[in-house]
Design a protein that fits this description.
This protein is mostly helical. The chain contains five helices and no strands. Helices cover 79% and strands 0% of the residues.
């Protein structure tokens, strides 16, 4: 028989993060895996219509500057190398040569268009 009154064990309070995790799991289980992606996209679209695309550009720049301050420029060089090496492993051997030619052709076309104007 469980003790009652003052001797009964009190439930331990749930932390805020634990409550959020529990609630988020319930919502995911109820509405599906991509629910948060769908509502995020809706919110992002509304915000873009309200504030314009320059708003996203400015917050991205602020975030980029904050990350450089936090991690330093060497961190981003390392991330770039890792990304490049991963891409190199996933793609065929002439991938970089092919995209380099595409980029070069685009620059030449842009330059020709500017000269005509």
């Amino acid at each position: 028989m469980e003790p009652e009154g003052e001797d009964a064990p009190k439930p331990t309070p749930m932390s805020t993060s634990e409550a959020g995790r529990k609630g988020g799991s319930k919502v995911r289980d109820k509405y599906g895996e991509d629910y948060y992606r769908r509502i995020g996209k809706k919110g992002g679209t509304v915000l873009k219509e309200k504030r314009g695309s320059d708003y996203y550009r400015s917050i991205a720049q602020k975030g980029g500057r904050a990350n450089v301050e936090k991690y330093g420029p060497d961190h981003f060089a390392e991330m770039g190398k890792k990304g490049g090496n991963t891409t190199k492993k996933r793609q065929d051997p002439d991938f970089y040569s092919r995209i380099g030619k595409i980029g070069g052709a685009a620059k030449r076309k842009k330059k020709e268009t500017e000269e005509e104007a």
